[in-house]
Amino acid sequence: MQLGRVVGCVWSSVKNLGLTGQRLLIVQPVKADLSLTGRAIICTDCTGAGSGELIYWVRGKEASFPFTDAEVPSDATIVGIVDELNLGKPRTEEHL
Amino acid sequence: MLIARVIGDITATQKHPSHEGKKLLLVQPLDLDGSHRGMPVIAVDSVSAGIGDRVLLVQDGFAAFTTVGLKIAPIDSAVIGVIDHIQLDLGLDAVAPEPAPAPAEPRPAAKKQPKKNRAQ
């Protein structure tokens, strides 16, 4: 899984039937210090994440497992919303 | 499998039900010389590793969710061992990638050449 931050969402009317009802969120990967990095990707969501939240997402075949009955054609899915990130250092400021 | 170092752990309340009760670690994959190899990843812990440990990281979905005792789950990486010792018989020179070339010095600014007047 990778850390990321939700930076927006995508609407699509004409799409594969498996994507019906799925939220499509734009996720920007983040480094351990929470700075944005890399290229944004579009993820389906099984947690109810919203814009600006720090999340972790899974890539590949496992991305369709949360929706096994629905056969969602997804290769990236948000599977958790991060409450706290502990890097084992004394905390100087609020992480999130 | 990769060598990685645990650099943090993660708390999440709102998540896929299969992740409940599992420890989530933030691990940084390493090269043999200890330098970082790509981005840190989030892995499920199956060996009670802690921050600072060098660990074995598996990055295949099937291997990952079977090590934590699940049949099918949205998990793509897991920590499957804590490394005690690494022995390199051929030395680091034989396996380490070549060091990156030093950044080139900035070139001296080229002298401005007077513009040629275009023929009318």
Automatic annotation (TrEMBL), chain A:
This protein's UniProt keywords: Bacterial microcompartment
Intracellular or extracellular location(s): Bacterial microcompartment
Broad class of where this protein is predominantly found: other
Pfam family, one: EutN_CcmL
Keyword Kinase (UniProt): no
Gene Ontology CC annotation, any one: bacterial microcompartment
Protein name per the record: EutN/CcmL family microcompartment protein
UniProtKB/TrEMBL annotation, chain B:
Membrane keyword on record: no
Basic residues: compositionally biased ranges: 109-120
Location of this chain's protein in the cell: Bacterial microcompartment
Origin organism lineage: Bacteria, Pseudomonadati, Acidobacteriota, Terriglobia, Bryobacterales
Organism: Paludibaculum fermentans
Entry keyword annotation includes Nucleus: no
InterPro entries in alphabetical order: EutN_CcmL, EutN_CcmL_sf
Protein name in the entry: EutN/CcmL family microcompartment protein
Annotated TM spans: none
Gene3D superfamilies for the chain: EutN/Ccml
A GO CC term attached to the entry: bacterial microcompartment
Keywords: Bacterial microcompartment
Any Pfam family hit: EutN_CcmL
Segments for region (Disordered): 96-120
